[in-house]
Design brief:
Elements: H1 2-10, H2 24-40, E1 47-49, H3 58-61, H4 63-67, E2 73-75, H5 78-85, E3 94-98, E4 102-103, E5 109-118, E6 122-133, E7 136-149
Parallel strand pairs: 1-2
Antiparallel strand pairs: 3-5, 4-5, 5-6, 6-7
Amino acid sequence: MFLLAATLASAGLTPLPIDPPEAPVCALARTAIADYVAMTKLTAPDVALDTTSPSAAIFAQCPQILAALPAPFRAATGDEMARVRDAFTRNPATVYTVTAPEIAPDGQSATISIGYYCSGLCGFGYRLHYVRKGDAWVPAPGATNEIWQS
């Protein structure tokens, strides 16, 4: 690699940086978010997504996902996060959540949790199951399980 860079530099050319491959957890989180939008047929024009709480650490680990969230998702504001935690607010909010994927030790299957919370006792959660097919993550048979509802 160094020899190639030196050769290009001697010719007055600058090599283009090569993007590193996306980490498996990032690829899976990106896939699951897109699948969730399709699965639930989200029609709201503007859907807040928790990107700052400890359970949303996937966005710190994979900032490229946050930079390219699929419609209708956007990062939740601090105000929305405060309102969703307030059971008695007169101005309710709904915020969706995505956890970091849990990849099996063999790297061939994984699960990820996605759901939403609303002000008061409101919300639900899904657990999505995936298997690896080559370089891609695809939903496993019986891929979606509702794990809680309030």
